[in-house]
């Protein structure tokens, strides 16, 4: 397999003085510009005042990334936005898939129950906002390089704030530092795409905020970020908030951060007869009441946020309210790995044609474009030929090495890789295997880079994962799409010995693309 890394790029920085200068520049730039996270207790002690921040892990150089693949991923994003907006509107389709996984997955079953409860009394908000991120790795087939989708995120798609910052950091280094290296890199030789991820996502939030309209109850309207307690990736979220304020200097969009665990403490619902508006009561000033126009979830994507039945009641309160949810329960469920699997299961092995046709007709140009980005993904049920074949592959000590097995989870750290798959299958009842999907591993061309993490350098082979953000606002009842935009990108890079790639989960780091 050929390498994307040229002989002299990125430089290895064998000279300690050169290396130290670059590292110092990065340490200062990252803090000065909020390319930062809150430190874990292992580094900060208990930081009881909550004043410490540290640099996010970053690469010293932007990783080389094929220009054609980058262009393809950007170009297809609006098609993906539309596809997932349509899936969210297809309750019958989602219902069938939920039935397939819910037996072995209480979390998905509980989400579905929330949807059913709200459906019964009637939704009072038809607008739905998606701040999506479609993730890819480059697959090499001979000389042909092709992006293959790792997954599609419909909830809490993170790093849009920090990603814009690392693109700026690498641009700064390309201008001021790389030309001074002994292995000089002229600025003109580095093609760094602009990255509007923070502005793009903020513009999505702003579109929903304005579409909500004025309060009929006479309250000011606001956006609420629903967040996790003790969130370390807080600056990523703050960048979106700041971008939202600076996007339009003439309007103020009040933004509040509300821990998911305190939804029921600080919000109430207006009665159904008046419209079931979600009212936010800021704890710092009891005389104020805001009407929530947009409820933006940066929490609630996994079972850890629902330790008690009360937490599920909190989710129900948001779902049945008039606030535009980002995402709604149905949109969150559209992001199930099971959905991705049924879209991608090749027609030759599935008992029914790929579900992609249900949403995008064969003669639509975007059908072929989307299909090209899929890699093989199989169900693990016992009812279909594809499922039975996948069960054989997953349980085989040799075959399993080509696959990753995924449950219906988000946030990193939940998958089983290669030889861990047969082991995991032994530990779960066979009746529940269908709650997982089996996906072929994508093996991108080798790239070399140096990662700066917790002040230490790690040099070696790395694997890059490109994410493209999309913002979409649509009407669940009419299908009308009010906004559909590609909204910037994320490049996450991990050591090639690591299977998981999440930055927040501690495996990966922030990177940007040098187009080659
Ligand atoms: P999550 O929703 O938890 O982020 P992902 O599907 O993105 O789950 O998987 C987590 C990580 O596992 C990815 O970031 C990637 O590094 C790795 N991974 C997942 N699927 C594949 C695949 N098909 N080929 C190679 N690596 C993969
Ligand atoms: Mg995900
Ligand atoms: Mg992921």
From TrEMBL:
Entries under Gene3D superfamilies matching the protein: 3.30.1490.50, 3.30.1490.80, ATP-grasp fold, B domain (3.30.470.20), Glutathione synthase, substrate-binding domain superfamily, eukaryotic (3.40.50.1760), Glutathione Synthetase, Chain A, domain 3 (1.10.1080.10)
Pfam families: GSH_synth_ATP, GSH_synthase
Ranges that cross the membrane: none
UniProt KW Cell inner membrane keyword: no
The EC number(s) this enzyme carries: 6.3.2.3
Assembly and binders: Homodimer.
Highest taxon of source: Eukaryota
One GO MF term: glutathione synthase activity
Cofactor(s) the protein requires to work: Mg(2+)
Native source species: Chaetomidium leptoderma
Name of the protein in its database record: Glutathione synthetase
Residues holding substrate: 133, 155-158, 231-233, 237, 298-301, 492, 503-504
Residues that bind Mg(2+): 151, 153, 410
Ranges of residues in domain Glutathione synthase substrate-binding: 221-334
Enzyme class: ligase
Cellular component terms (Gene Ontology): cytosol
Keywords: ATP-binding, Glutathione biosynthesis, Ligase, Magnesium, Metal-binding, Nucleotide-binding
Cofactor binding mode and count: Binds 1 Mg(2+) ion per subunit.
InterPro entries: Glutathione_synthase (IPR005615), Glutathione_synthase_a-hlx (IPR014042), Glutathione_synthase_C_euk (IPR014709), Glutathione_synthase_N_euk (IPR014049), GSH-S_sub-bd_sf (IPR037013), GSH_synth_subst-bd (IPR004887), PreATP-grasp_dom_sf (IPR016185)
Catalyzed reactions: gamma-L-glutamyl-L-cysteine + glycine + ATP = glutathione + ADP + phosphate + H(+)
Positions that bind ATP: 151, 337, 406-415, 417, 439-442, 465, 494, 500
Family: Belongs to the eukaryotic GSH synthase family.
Pathway linked to the protein: Sulfur metabolism; glutathione biosynthesis; glutathione from L-cysteine and L-glutamate: step 2/2
């Amino acid at each position: 397999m050929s390498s994307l890394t040229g002989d002299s790029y990125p430089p290895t920085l064998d000279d300690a003085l050169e290396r130290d200068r670059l590292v110092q520049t990065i340490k200062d730039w990252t803090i000065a510009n909020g390319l930062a996270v809150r430190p874990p207790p292992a580094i900060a002690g208990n930081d009881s005042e909550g004043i410490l921040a540290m640099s996010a892990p970053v690469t010293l150089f932007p990783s080389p990334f094929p220009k054609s693949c980058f262009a393809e991923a950007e170009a297809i994003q609006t098609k993906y936005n539309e596809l997932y907006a349509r899936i969210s509107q297809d309750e019958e389709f989602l219902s069938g898939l939920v039935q397939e996984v819910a037996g072995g997955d209480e979390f998905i079953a509980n989400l579905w129950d929330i949807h059913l409860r709200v459906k019964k009394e009637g939704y009072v908000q038809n607008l739905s906002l998606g701040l999506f991120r479609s993730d890819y790795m480059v697959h090499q087939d001979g000389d042909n390089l092709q992006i293959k989708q790792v997954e599609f995120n419909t909830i809490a798609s993170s790093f849009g704030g920090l990603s814009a910052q690392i693109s700026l950091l690498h641009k700064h280094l390309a201008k001021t530092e790389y030309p001074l290296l002994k292995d000089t890199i002229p600025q003109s030789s580095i093609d760094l795409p602009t990255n509007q991820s923070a502005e793009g996502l903020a513009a999505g939030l702003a579109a929903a905020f304005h579409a909500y309209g004025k309060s009929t109850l006479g309250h000011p309207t606001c956006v609420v970020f629903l967040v996790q307690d003790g969130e370390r990736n807080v600056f990523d979220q703050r960048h979106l908030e700041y971008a939202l304020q600076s996007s339009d200097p003439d309007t103020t969009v009040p933004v509040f951060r509300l821990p998911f665990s305190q939804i029921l403490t600080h919000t109430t619902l207006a009665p159904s007869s008046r419209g079931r508006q979600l009212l936010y009561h800021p704890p710092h000033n009891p005389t104020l009441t805001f009407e929530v126009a947009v409820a933006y979830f940066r929490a609630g994507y996994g079972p850890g946020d629902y330790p008690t039945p009360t937490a599920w009641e909190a989710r129900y309160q948001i779902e049945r309210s008039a606030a535009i949810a980002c995402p709604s329960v149905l949109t969150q469920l559209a992001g199930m790995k099971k959905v991705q699997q049924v879209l991608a299961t090749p027609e030759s092995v599935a008992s029914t044609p790929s579900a992609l046709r249900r949403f995008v007709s064969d003669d639509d140009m975007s059908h072929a474009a989307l299909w090209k980005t899929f890699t093989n993904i199989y169900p693990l049920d016992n009812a279909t030929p594809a499922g039975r074949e996948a069960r054989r592959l997953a349980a085989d000590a040799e075959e399993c090495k080509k696959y990753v097995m995924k449950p219906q989870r988000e946030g990193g750290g939940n998958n089983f890789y290669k030889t861990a798959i047969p082991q995991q299958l032994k530990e779960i009842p066979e009746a529940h295997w269908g709650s997982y999907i089996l996906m072929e591993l994508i093996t991108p061309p080798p790239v070399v880079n140096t990662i700066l993490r917790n002040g230490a350098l790690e040099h070696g082979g790395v694997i890059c994962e490109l994410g493209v953000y999309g913002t979409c606002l649509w009407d669940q009842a009419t299908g009308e799409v009010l906004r559909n935009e590609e909204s910037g990108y994320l490049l996450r890079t991990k050591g090639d010995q690591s299977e998981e790639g999440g930055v927040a989960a501690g495996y990966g780091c922030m990177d940007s693309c040098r187009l080659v």
